[in-house]
Amino acid sequence: MRSFSSQKSLSRIASSEIRGFSSRPVFFSSTNPKVTYDLRVPRKIKWRAHEASFSTMSANSLLDAFKAKRPAFGTFITSGGFFFARAVAKASPHMEWICIDCEHGLMSLNPGVSELIAAIQATGIPAFVRIPATGVSMGTSWQIKYALDAGAKGIVVPMVSTAEKAREVVSDSRFPPVGRRGFGSSYTHGNWNMSAQDYLDIANDNVIVTVQIETKEAIENLEEIAAVDGVDVLLLGPSDLSMAYGYPVPSPDPHPEIEKLIQKVLRVAHEKGKKCAMYVNNGEKAAQRAKEGFDMVSVTNDIGNLTLGISAQFDDAVRLSK
């Protein structure tokens, strides 16, 4: 079980021994003439402090919120554009994470996600990617790889309804020996602001794996899904969950029977040592869910916030001009 109170932080790596190189060297160059990769057999060597300048915080700042056991507010981005993503990331000092929505949003994984990740993470906010393929399909593996290779600090997989699928998602998100994720991107570590070797050393402990609970089957298998080692967060999909049970989507409150299921997911997630996330339509509902114990709360999405903001400003203009 992953412990959020003892995550490997960059400061711990910097003050301890990490993997180094020995044996016969094999070198090859990347497209960048200044970059050379050393593929010698690993052994332990002393950390060379001058090679990196790391803070005492985790490589993924959302983990610091988890360790502090406080709610982390964020939002979803459904529209593309480097400058738009950066504006959203800088819109509030209370923004702690942003999820790029490739499931229901208008941007594609390629091209699109990589520049949004760069725009968001340049502001210091971790970017996550909700992949377009759902967990009930077999098309998730390459999408997870692409999102993480583009530098995302976490992935969100919709419609994960079985423990088997949850284990597959975890394996696709972790490097060996704990997973099957491959390494080779020239962009990943750049978006984490570190070297390739440093990224390999900390990625398994700092990439956040989120699975969505939004089907009848997922509720039936909830205990088993929540028990999967390597799953970090259970994200409730209230709209799809409502429709799965024959109820209308929340507007803004879910049907009382769906609310019971929401509270069940929250309870089981915490019992199994996981974090629980929830999407809501406005700040007032976000505060309510945070008080209930949700660890991540999405304060609507970019278009929702844009609409609310424009509406409020025009209401003020008309009201104050009378």
From TrEMBL:
Residues 95-302 form the HpcH/HpaI aldolase/citrate lyase domain. Gene3D superfamilies: Phosphoenolpyruvate-binding domains (3.20.20.60). InterPro entries: Aldolase/citrate-lyase_domain (IPR005000), HpcH-HpaI_aldolase (IPR050251), Pyrv/PenolPyrv_kinase-like_dom (IPR015813), Pyrv_kinase-like_dom_sf (IPR040442). Keywords: Lyase, Metal-binding. GO terms for cellular component: cytoplasm. It comes from the Eukaryota. GO terms for molecular function: aldehyde-lyase activity; metal ion binding. Coiled coil: none annotated. Belongs to the HpcH/HpaI aldolase family. This is Aldolase citrate lyase family protein.
